[in-house]
Amino acid sequence: MLNVTAVPAAPDAARAARDRAGALIAAPLPADAEVHGDWVRAPGARCGAVLYVHGGGFAHTMPEAERVVAYRLSQAAGRPTLRVDYRLAPAHPYPAALEDLLAAWQDVLDQGVPAHEVVFVGESSGATLVLSALLELKRTGREQPGAAVVVSPVTDFALTGASLTANDGKDVLSRAVLETVTGQYLAGADPEAAPQSPLYGDPRGLPPLLVAAGTDEVLWDDARRFAEAADAAGVSVRLDAYEDMPHAFHLSEPGEAFFDRLAHWLADPVREVTVSGPDAGPYALVDGPDGALWFTLVHQGAIGRRDADGAVTVHAVGAGPTLLAQGPDGALWFTEYGSHRIGRITVHGDVTSFAPPTAEGGPFGIAAGPDGAMWFTLSAADRIGRITMDGEITEYPVPDGFPSALAAGPDGALWFTLNRAGAIGRITTDGRTTTYPLPTPSAAPVGLTVGPDGALWFTEIGAGQIGRITTDGEITEFPLPDRQARPHALTTGPDGAVWFTEWGGNRVGRITTDGLITGYALPRPASEPHGIVQHRGALWCALETGSLARIAVPAE
């Protein structure tokens, strides 16, 4: 589901945006601005770059005012900003301006600026050019920037958006003006084709997008429809809806909110991508043997796969697929809590399943063992199961206590949480068990993983703590700052720390091996984070609201 944030208008802000249009850029360029050609740098701007593509209906430019905008962008992004001086229509119609933007992008790369440290920012017609450039870079297989911000883009030159009529007369821009702009810019090019009309392109694989538009704009539906299409294609996109604002609101005094939100969005290490409907329930995930990210859709009875370009494939399986893990046979194995079976799915989507001897056992946790078999918990039956690659199942009784997650330890045994008993269990490959009661009553441990220090780390959902147990049974507990956070799942990150989800706190937490705890809030409230895994150098967690969140791991 598209992440839409309503940005309320302050009292009289809408009137100010109309009566004092351009107030933010009417003042002179600040004296502390460094201007070198069309590069503008605010104090404190560091490495990377912003490519700023100005508006003006593809036909007009105001270099001095645009340098003020470039300065504001440099302040917000903390990077030097290049104002792209592209050729103008009608003397130079499509694709001249797009070619100039692509040439400017190549020049920035040739100067040695890493692509992932560059942000494209465009306003109005410049926002259209940004989206066109992204589509063209993807089509031709060229490097793309790390992120893009578009304000009030024209995405459909066929002019089919409902807001073109609904907001005509409310906005400072009109449908009649857009018809003139379309004719001058396209000069006969197809209005229903990409990249010139971005809405008709394939947005799969685009970088993270921040789309901003005023709800009183004639272009509101152009912005909204492109954001929805990008979201459906697996792009990390946020739509900021500025209530009651007209076109070019970001250049007037109310635009202060836009620059502030842009700065926070760029600095946020968490990006969210939609992978299902809000009721499907992404629950657990795993880094697949094919380089894709695999996840369970617990309420949909399906397993999903997301490739590097963001394309999602969904395979129907049994009821209630819960946890999943890579098997030694190159397939994914998973528990079907609702149908009481163990499932197997190949990377090509072929599905088989196996029924354990104990009926109604409630399989939950699953992991590859050191003996070439898969091991799993039967939480409702207080048993641990073992299944070979050809489907032969053996079960072992464990102490009463609702065995939940399990993991293969560094000592050649399987370790598991006993949720109701408040204990950690250990089982050898020949079925001998040992239990270790936790110091905190009602700890209710759930998630379990092998830490970077060779110990087992686990979540205490009932106590709001993270626990650690060595292979000789020594237990340490670390209280979270929010004891109501209800930590659920955890994994070792690429930075040598343990990362975990806070189901009750709507956060992703991080704990170092010496107990230092930090964390990140998720982009939208009540996301219900559950599973978490390391994938392609970042952390990914499953949100039961229909999305996956990617957390960029900060450099140490």
From TrEMBL:
Keyword list, A-Z: Antibiotic resistance, Lyase, Magnesium, Metal-binding
Family recorded in the similarity comment: Belongs to the Vgb family.
Pfam families assigned to the protein according to its UniProt record, in alphabetical order: Abhydrolase_3, Vgb_lyase
Protein name: Virginiamycin B lyase
Domain Alpha/beta hydrolase fold-3: 50-250
Gene3D superfamilies: alpha/beta hydrolase (3.40.50.1820), YVTN repeat-like/Quinoprotein amine dehydrogenase (2.130.10.10)
SUPFAM superfamilies noted in UniProt: alpha/beta-Hydrolases, Calcium-dependent phosphotriesterase
Organism from which the protein derives: Streptomyces lunalinharesii
